[in-house]
Amino acid sequence: MLEGAIVRTTAFQADEDMVREGDRPSDSKLLLEGFAARYKILHNGKRQITSIHVPGDFVDLHNFTLKVMDHAIFAMSPCKVAVVPHEVLHRITEEHPHLTRLLWLNTTIDGAIHRQTLVNLGRQAALGQLAHLLCELFVRLEVVGETEDYSFRLPITQSELGDALGLSTVHVNRTLQELRSQGLLTWRGNLVVIEDWERLCEVAQFDPVYLNLEHQPR
Fold first, then answer.
1. Which ranges of the chain does DSSP label H, i.e. alpha helix?
2. pLDDT at position 218, please?
3. In what order do the strands lie in the sheet with 151-153?
4. What pLDDT sits at residue 192?
5. Does residue 145 come out as left (phi exceeding 0), alpha (psi in the -120 to 50 range) or beta?
6. Where does the chain hold its CATH 2.60.120.10 domain(s)?
7. What would the CATH number be for the domain defined by 2-116?
8. Cα–Cα distance between 75 and 13 in angstroms, integer?
9. What angle do CA 147, 157, 117 make, to 5 degrees?
């Protein structure tokens, strides 16, 4: 049913908006390839990235019920997305209750990730924030087969990391250097290699329970 709900696939270039704040979309987008992010622009022009999305994520499923976008979504790298019309999602909710519950789970996990991000930004130092983000992305990418051993591709700039963590680019660079100097990871180009997973999780205070990875009846 979900495969049949996809009416087309479309591509976005890096830095291109998929959806803009204030839009009233008539469809939702399932990310098939690449990285995307939700963001808001403040009146002073500064950007806050509120979440990062990996392949397998419905980046804007919530707009099916919210209708008006209160934030924007952009492609952090070249992306391929599958487009699902809202009229099809409406039919799914009427005729396929189990699939509806799984789509609902998608949005509740979104909420769990946002709550964890809020805790990290409010109570973690920069080192813990960045370590936690990298731990989370590794686990989410591992689930969809986008990792190799303890390495993964992450085509994100230090400026974008700063927008996600509320840090300056200089502070992000300094924090990355500290993670490297402690032997926790290496980062060359867009390849992140985690050298010590257990210690990185310890620095991050990372517990993946909020990602709800256990298989349970829904």
1. 2-5, 63-66, 86-95, 97-123, 126-143, 158-165, 169-181, 197-204
2. 87
3. 147-148, 151-153, 191-194, 185-188
4. 98
5. left
6. 2-116
7. 2.60.120.10
8. 7
9. 70
Using the CB atoms, write b or e for 135-170: b if 16+ within 10 Å. bbbbebbeeeebbeeeebebebebebbbbbbebeee
* pLDDT for 215: 87
pLDDT, position 175: 98
pLDDT tens profile 138-151: 999 999 999 999 99
For the chain, give every residue range classified as CATH 1.10.10.10: 125-211
What averages of pLDDT result for each successive group of 10 residues across the chain (218 residues)?
95 98 97 98 95 97 95 98 98 97 95 96 97 98 97 97 97 98 96 98 98 90
How many other CB atoms are there within 10 angstroms of residue 86's CB atom? 15
Instruction: Give dist(CA 62, CA 88) in Å, integer.
Output: 14
Q: Measured between alpha carbons, how far is 1 from 5 in angstroms, rounded to an integer?
A: 6
Query: For position 216, what pLDDT does the model report?
Result: 87
Contacts (Cβ under 8 Å, ≥6 apart) of 55:
31, 32, 33, 34, 144, 146
Report the pLDDT value the prediction gives residue 121, as an integer from 0 to 100.
95
**Which CATH number applies to 125-211?**
1.10.10.10
